[in-house]
Amino acid sequence: MVLVKLYCLVDPVDVGDIQSRLLDYRPVISAEVRYFVREFEEKRGLRESRLLENLNKMVQEANEQMLPSNLEEMSQKLSDISKRLEAANHMAERVQQRELEAQQNTGLQANMEKLKEDWAEFLKEQQRLKEEVDEEHAKAVGELSSRFSVKKKDLAQFSL
Q1: What is the pTM of this model?
Q2: Cα-flanking dihedrals φ and ψ of residue 24, to 5°?
Q3: What is the pLDDT along the chain (160 residues), one digit of tens a residue?
């Protein structure tokens, strides 16, 4: 009888709801899963936040201690590098200048050799011309001396 009275008190829609709650575990399981995930994320989040804090401290220490010394070393090394580059640039310019002078000297030497050859040829030509002039002079002297000797003979004949 108590059952009948209890059954009369319960609505048929409530019976389906009670049955679905008793037999359907999905909402309970999803609630448990959400609870588990929330707990896991909280524990994991604390661990990650501690790791991030430690990393942040390390970065701050590096910025405070290592950065100024590294900047000083870098500026010093950069000045050394720039000095070395300037010296290397100066040396390269000197090498280029010497090479240019050597090329010019090679050109000058070639010109000097050509001038020497031209001078030697000029001297040979002058020697040849001198010999010709000497021959002509000798011929002219011979002709004049023969003429004067003829004139002398003629003069000697007239004076006798």
Answers
A1: 0.33
A2: -100, 115
A3: 444 444 455 555 566 677 666 666 677 777 888 887 788 777 776 777 778 788 888 888 877 777 677 778 888 888 999 999 999 999 999 999 988 888 888 878 888 889 999 999 999 999 999 999 999 999 999 998 898 888 888 888 887 6
